[in-house]
Amino acid sequence: MLVRHGESEWNRRNMFTGWQDVDLSEEGVTEAHRAGCMLKAAGARLDLAFTSTLKRAQNTLKIILSELDQEDLPIVYDAALNERHYGDLVGLNKDEARKRWGEEQVHLWQRSYDVAPPGGESLKDTAARVLPFFAKRIAPELQAGKSVILVGHGNSLRALVMQLDRLSPEQVIELNIGTGVPLVYRLRADGSVAEKRDLAA
Length: 201
Hints:
The chain is of the alpha/beta class. The chain contains 8 helices and 6 strands, in the order βααβαβαααβααββ. The chain has helices at 9-12, 26-41, 55-67, 94-101, 103-111, 123-143, 154-164, 169-172; strands spanning 2-4, 48-51, 75-77, 148-152, 183-187, 193-198.
């Protein structure tokens, strides 16, 4: 189960966040509760949780686990699952950035696969830490038959979904993962996707 954290204060203010440790907005807390309720309604029972070292993801996970009555679930925290680093864009309003560098350039930094903002990471760079972590730490748990939740960020999850859904660098430009929306994957033994459900659809 993959969930992007609920709306953060900087999402609300339309700012580039990256590794800045910003907490959930009021709406983000509501979204996290809603995600937990959706998972509960789908009959989710978890064995293990993974999240980043950033509190907006950690707090989303805590709220989800409280809705599932599974607060004592083992949790693995790792910076490999952090949002991509936005470099010089961190803390800037997205509209201001577009005025400064142009709509097309900012869109390229945000959505493309291998173009990084100044001083920051591209999606390809983010995938270079997310995917090995998934292969080493998460995939073996899934292969052992465990039910796992990963609460991450827009781009750490885009990198993973790109691999799971076998999207090309061109297709991933169109991929947007909404805040607080649970995606449920069932994987085969070889790691390919047997089933995918968007619980908000």
